[in-house]
Structures are given as C-alpha cells and as structure tokens.
Design a protein that fits this description.
The chain has 511 residues and is of the alpha+beta class. The chain is 31% helix and 18% strand.
Amino acid sequence: MSRPSLIAAVLLLAGLLAAPPAARAITLSAGFDSGSLDVAASSVAGDTVTLVGRDNFNPGQWKWVYFAADGVSGVRPTFEIGDNFATGGSNLNTHEMVYSYDGQAWQFFDNNARFAASDLYRFSNDAPFTSDRVYVAYGLPYPAGRATEHTQSLQGIPWVAPTASADSGLVIGQSPGGVDDLGRTIDPQPLYGYRITDPAATGRKAKVVLLGGVHSNETLGSRTLEAMVDYLTADTLEAALLRRGAEFYVYPMANPDGRLAGYNRSTVEKPTLDPNRFWDPPAYGGQSEIAAVATAILADTAGSVDFFIDFHSTVAKGGDHFGYVDIDRGMHLNPVWRRFLELEPTVDTLDAGLVDDTAAKFGFAELGARFTTTFETRFLAGENADRFVALGENLGRAFADTLAPLPEPGDVDLDGDLDADDWLALSQWAQADLAGLSALEAYTRGDLNADGRNDVHDFALFKAAYQSAHGDGAWARLLTAVPEPGAATLLALAGLAAAAPRSDRFATRSV
C-alpha cells in the first residue's frame, strides 16, 4: 500500500472510531401475555412512534394497548395513537398511559394529551428512558399468567381449598383456546375456583362469590380482586374471624383466552359477543369458558349465595370508582356495601336495573344473592397499584366489620362477654411464648397486643378493658375469686399489670 493510501486508511479508521455510534432503531413487539398492538401497522420515524391499536371487538376502534419498545435507552420518543377509542375519543382527555422497565413496577408518562383536531393522542416523558426495553400500556396490566401464579401461591394455606367442582390444583376446567385476530394459536387455559373459609368453624356461614376477568381488557378489576383475596387469606385476627362466619367462592379469571390474547373485551372463541351479556343458562351464548365458570358456581354454592361481586374496570370519564347496584331493590342499603362506602367515601353507587344478562344479574336471578354488584374500577390518572390494593383490602374489611366484627378487647373466648372465663383463659397461658401460632390461636391464649407472647402487657390491657366494662370494684372481686392453684402467680401478674406502661396495641383493625 502506498504511503498516501496508508495515511488515508488511518484517517478513515480514526474518523470511524471518533464518530458516535449510530442510534439503534426503535422496534415494537407485543407477542406476550396480554400484549396488544397491531405491530405491522404501527411505525417508527426517528423518535416518533405511531401506534395502531387492535380492533378485535369494536370495528375500527381500540380499547387496550400493551407492547414493548426496544432500542429506547437514552431516547425520549413521542408515542402517538389515533383517538378512535372504543367508547369515544373524549375518554382519553384526562387519561395517562403507563410504562415499566420490568413489567412489574409501573409509572405514568409525564405528558399525556389528546389532540382532537388531529384525531391523535400523544404521550411522552420529559427525560430519556434509562433501559433499552420499556413496556408501555393503556393501564396497569394483569396478565392471565398472573392469575395462575397467584392461585398457585394459595395452595397449602389451611383455609384455602378447592371448590366442589375443582381438582386438587384448584382447577375447575379449561377454556377452549382458539385462533385470535392476528392468526395466533391461543392454547386452552386453566379456569380456577377455590373456597376461602375456616374449615373447623361450623354453623351458618354467609356465602360470597367473587368473580373476575370476564372482560379481557379490564385489568384493574383483577388487581382489586387479588388484593381482596390476599386480605381474606392473611393470618390476621380480623380475617380469621371473618373466615369463621363466611365462605368465599373465588373464580379469578373467567376469560383467560381473551386476556392472554390481548383482546379489547371479548373471548377468543366468540370475538363478536360481549361475555358479560350472556350469563343465561344453559346456553351462555355458546361461550365455553363462561358456561364452565357459571356451571361451577351453581354446583359449588348449591345455587344459593348471599353476596355476588363481579370485578370490572372502565374508563376515567369523570367520577371515581363505583359499583352498579340495584337501588330499586334496596341493595344499596346492604350493611356490607354501606360499610365499604364509609371506608371508601369517594366510591360512587350507580343504579343497576339487572335487565341485561350480566354476571351480576346471574348472581341475583340464579343464585338468589341479596346483594350483587358489578364493581367498576376506573383507569384514573395517577392511581397506581397501591390504590387497587387499598380498594380490595377495604372490600374485605367491609365484610369483616359487618359479618364478624372484632371481639371486645379481652374477650379471648370469643363468647361476646368480658367476664371471669376470659380471665381464666388469659391466666392459663400466662407468660407463654405464642410465636408460631395463628393470629386467632394466639389471641385466644391471651396475646391481646399481637406480639407473640402472653405477658404483663396483655394483662394490663385486660385489666383496663375489664375496669372500663365493670368498674374498679369488679376488678378487685375478680382477683379474689380466682381459684387455686395459681392464685399467687396471677395476683403477681395483676400487680405487675397495674405498674406496666400503658399499651394501645390491641389487635384491632385500622379504619
């Protein structure tokens, strides 16, 4: 190579090394659980990403978007999509899209705006993305697989069991599967049913059906239902008492095919039908999964329940979360619903005529529920996962407060009276280490402050409660009436209790 050629080659190489690397082109994908985007029709031009939603239920309109964008590290793209939202572009006026780097923790985009004159909705962030891949969605996703994972996590809990229709894996049947609007094969998915109650408790129990996942794109309802189940299965005194007085029949995902395929609303088997308009036995509109779940509910509950809650989600469109409740039949006056509204004062009550063949009507007409509701959670700007956890927990708490309120402080034998029997039960386990027992077992052994021990602090709490209920003279008479053996020990503990620092840590629920 001649010297001029060598110099030119060196200069070229130096220039290549000094030049910044070419920006990686942004690519889109949605081939995962509940992913939804017409990738082929979408496009990328520089930092502008034009999205096209799928219209698999509402022709020419979309109502669910969930996709991944790769090649976005250090980039601040602008996403835009037509405002042909299924129930009207105005529903996007106050909406905010969400993004996540791991598909678990979600954040809202900084900038969200509808440009009605251009029939576009645009959203972006003020700062560049910090990861090469970002997940983007219309709202907080809840994939079909999450329902499976959550259900499987409940196995082994002593108060969770299969319903009569379910096998040992809590499976009541399978969805039919099929081919979705993009030509993809959707394999049959498990349908779940399980019961939450205290199997050792006998007597009349309130029956409650909890149903979720009827509409494929209504993910917030699934999050709320999951949070309520977590509350019901927790090892707390309030949940334990509720399980003694109620049994919950849970069917978490009635339309897993539609959720898995990323559909706007319907099932894969019957894409033109609304699965919440055909809860009419025995046909159910030919929707196999709806028929399977409804048939299981009828069999599992012997066709009779007290409460029926169907969890859904809807657009912002002004207002807060709400329940469709039959006001003409007085269901809005049900004590559980009224207690829930006390805990969640911004939740609205809208009238439900129970005319269409919805799941809520099925609960009333086929199961005889005295209270039935379609509980609608809205995709509200700024309301993240913790909001739907709170809604689910407060629904559970409303049942606990109404059906199985906590006992009077110190009523360790749970008979409704604070008397000598409670003192004797408390005394029997004096100074015992109760760690490892369930919350209910520990309480009935005198752990009034839920610290895993029966000690002087619990005796102080009992004394304060007993004096409040019966007066100082009654407390002195109780001590002298304690039978031998053990009187000296109990008197010593009682003396310590009098000197113990005051503790307000009763095992009570927060309101």
